[in-house]
Structures are given as C-alpha cells and as structure tokens.
Specification:
Elements (H helix, E strand, L loop, with lengths): L1 E6 L5 E9 L8 E11 L5 E9 L2 E5 L11 H26 L21
Length: 119
Amino acid sequence: MTNCSYETGNNIIAEETGFLKNPGIENEEALVQHGSYTYTAPDGSIITVTYTADEQGFRAQGAHLPTPPPIPAEIQKSLDIIYEQIRLQQEQEAREKAFRKPEESNFAGEENYPSRFKQ
C-alpha cells in the first residue's frame, strides 16, 4: 500500500493512496489509486478534484467539471431496444453455432467418424 501527500509553495495540496488489487492472480492484478488535489483557480475560487484510477481507467470528480446532460427518455428507450436486439442476435448466433448440422461444421470427412459407423 502506498500513501503520499504534499503541499506546494503556491498552495497546491495533493494526497493519494494506492494498493495492488488481486495480487498474484494472473490477468486480474490491478493498481488502484484514490486521491485528490486542490488548487486556487485564476479567478480565486478553490478547485478540488477527487479521483480513482484503476483497471477501469481514470475517473475524476469535481464541482467545476462539466457533466453530460441526462439522456432524454425517448432516446434512452430507443437505445434500450437497440441493445436488446443486439443481445438477442448474439444469443441466436451462439445457439446456431452450438447446434450446427454436421455438414455445416468443420468435419474433414469420413476419417473423423468412428469405424463402427463406417460401411
């Protein structure tokens, strides 16, 4: 685990903690860092940013950061329908792949059949 904090001569204050998530587990290890920094903007306002950095990327939060407007209900409904259709199509493709007829599969020919089925 790491822990760090400092303050500069021009009143920037920062602190951060970090740790290794899932140590020793292949393909699941991730460095996780949480922290914040504060500084004075040119207009004199105090700006504070808190953040998390991990396997999902860097995510910052602060009252001064812009946020997207909410998605209108009509558009969200359309997106939900599109995502549901994509999910259904993927399920159908998976079922078709699992239940392929032998002539549609990757059999190389008669040599792949057990001898008891050969004539």
